[in-house]
Amino acid sequence: MAELATSTRSKNGQPKNRRWHPLWLAAPGLLFLAIFLAWPTLKLMLLSFQNSEGGFSLDVWSQMFGAGIYVKVMLNTFIIALETTLTCLLVGYPVAYWLSQRNENTRRRLMWLILLPFWTSALLKNFAWLVLLSRRGILSEILMSLGADQPLNLLYTRGVVVFAMAHSMLPLAIITMLPTMTGIDNGLMRASHTLGASRAQGFWRIFFPLSMPGVVAACLLIFIGSLGFFITPALLGSPQDSVIGQLLITQVQQLLNWRLAGAVAMLLLIATLIVCFCYDKLFGMSAISGGEGQARSPRIRKVGYAITASAARVCDMLGKALAAIPGKPRLSWLLPLFSIVIILVLISPVISFLPMAFSSSSFLQFPPPGFSLRWMETYLQSPIWTGATMRSFGIALVTGTLSVLIAGAAAFGLARHQGKSGSLVVMTFLLPMIIPNIVTAVSLFYLFATVGLVGSNIGIILGHTVMAIPVVFIIILTTFKGYDWRLNQAASTLGAGRWRVLREITLPLIKSSLVAAFIFGFLNSFEELTVALFVGGGVKQTLPKQMWDDVLLSVTPTLAAASVIILSIVTLLFVIAERSRRKADAL
Predict the structure, then answer these.
(1) Given this model, what pLDDT does residue 341 score?
(2) What's the pLDDT score for residue 10?
């Protein structure tokens, strides 16, 4: 089963086998990404170098850099992304470390709580903060009950934008750092203690350096993801906090300025690629694709060792100072308390919609003044809301199936391939994660406008499949890396054909992983807004797009009722996916 084969005839008429390279299985996926990701992105960016007659011109670039507003928006985007990355690192590292020290069962249960808000729409979470942090929100009510002079309104500030973006990206930071931490041999720490090192020395000189591949990979993913954010600044920020994503929406949907939109998209993509290039030169890209990256530069390693040594000495000094205090106060409870509080903050906007959906109030309010089924009935009886829900469900089903077929074939071929070219194919399939979503959505909108797919279900499905492929690909490829290929060889030795081995050996053993991959592809599509916002063209309303319109035009508790439906579906599918992944890991 190592390679595909077709039967041909030799010169003497006898049949012989022609063996195909396993990477041919990745060809459909590579072609799909070339047509619906690379080509439209390149085509959009080339517009920025054309004038109205189609000739070469740099007028758009002069306009962009000559206007102060564009430069300010670009700086805002990079600064907010950097602040979000640092926040996620400072908050997420202690939580990931605490989780790595728990047993497997406890860690899995806690990861359910952390990943649930990760797979919940950013639109829902940000709208929850819009309610919770308003002048009538629960935080303001608590402060008023404690004697505050006036209601507190935290909205429309840079701080709340960074907080909400960090809240959305924090689960990604944790799940990226955690595998590296759990893979560190605890015997190294015990050996350091045996040789006389303190707990602080052991952590900073051994554990922390070994965890750096996960840390730098998390920083890269968070920073790149933050560059494409537009929902959070649009809902929670002020005009002074506008980002590139909002600028792209304005240029495309309101001004139809494709040339300037291409320049903005190109600038954002170049910035992303520069970050990826620097990361690769300093640490290598292997950490992103599942390897163990480390600092390539000796100077970087020396600086890192000096910083960790200084941190260890400072911690030792603090420990000695605390030990000198009568009673020796124990601080071991701080890390568990901090981690639990962070997990509660992560799930708080998710569960806040439950009471608001059954509120007797005519506007969204938390806590609600009374109980009522009025808004749930409004949702269920509205053809607009139910139609958008059914459309999202159907699109997600097709997207999940298509992404599993494309990514599954590619993952199978890569698992059977032993050459160095496989890493390039892996990075190609991860490109939709590297290119900001807003750039991909605008590029697809430009491409589909020329072929008549804007405002069609097919256009949305194709865009959602591009977005879902990386997650599905990683899940299936990880399963194949742990697959025992000797079972296939044994079946072939006993006379089973290739297709029979695939049907009766391979597929049954990876079935749980395929189910998990399909569900995550489904969830990625079901809650995706960016592609639906552009490619849908306002004609084909998916549920996230309908909710976006409701937030902008007429905020009612019907939105909370729709959110409960989404949360119910997400929770159910998430539990099924996690159980399927657990079965796959056990095989």
Answers:
(1) 92
(2) 45
The pLDDT of residue 91? 93
Question: 3-class DSSP state for residue 360?
Answer: coil
Where do the domains of the chain lie, and which CATH numbers do they carry?
Answer: 21-46+384-587 (1.10.3720.10), 67-352 (1.10.3720.10)
**H-run or E-run covering 15:** strand 15-20
Q: How confident is the model at residue 329 (pLDDT cuts 50, 70, 90)?
A: low
Q: Which two tokens stand for residue 35?
A: 């047509």
- Token pair recorded at residue 377: 């009935």
Cβ pair 470, 433 in contact under 8 A: yes
Query: Do 345 and 114 contact (CB within 8 A), yes or no?
Result: no
**What phi and psi, each to the nearest 5 degrees, are found at residue 56?**
-70, 135
Closest of 83, 108, 105, 107 to residue 97, by C-alpha = 107
> What mean pLDDT, rounded, does the chain reach?
79
Q: For 248-306, write each residue's pLDDT tens digit.
A: 777 777 667 788 888 888 888 888 878 777 776 666 555 454 444 455 556 666 666 67
d(CA 338, CA 215): 19
Q: Which residues does 252 contact at the CB level (< 8 Å), separation at least 6?
A: 258, 261, 442, 445, 534
Nearest to 456 by CA among 356, 532, 530: 532
According to DSSP, residue 195 is labeled T
Residue 362 Rama label (left phi>0; alpha psi -120 to 50; beta) = alpha
462 closest CA partner among 23, 14, 37, 8: 37
Flag whether pLDDT at 184 surpasses 60: yes
In angstroms, the CA 403 to CA 495 distance is 32
Angle at 312 between CA 309 and CA 314, to 5 degrees: 110
Q: pLDDT, tens digit, for every residue of 475-486?
A: 888 888 777 777
- CB under 8 Å to 458, separation ≥6 — which residues? none
d(CA 69, CA 13): 74
Query: Is 82 exposed, middle or buried, given 0-12, 13-18 or 19+ CB atoms closer than 10 A?
Result: middle
Q: Are strands 15-20 and 4-9 parallel, antiparallel or unpaired?
A: antiparallel
Q: Are 411 and 473 in contact (CB under 8 A)?
A: yes
500-532 pLDDT tens trace: 777 777 778 778 788 888 888 898 888 888 888
Burial class for 156, CB neighbours closer than 10 Å (0-12, 13-18, 19+)? middle
Q: If we measure between CA atoms, which residue out of 396, 443, 510 comes closest to residue 46?
A: 443
Are the C-beta atoms of residues 205 and 312 closer than 8 Å to each other?
Answer: yes
Kindly give the residue spans of alpha helices, DSSP state H, lying in 416-506: 421-429, 431-434, 437-451, 457-481, 486-493, 498-501
Single-letter amino acid code for the residue at 291: G
Q: Of 335, 326, 376, 348, whose CA–CA distance to 113 is shortest?
A: 348
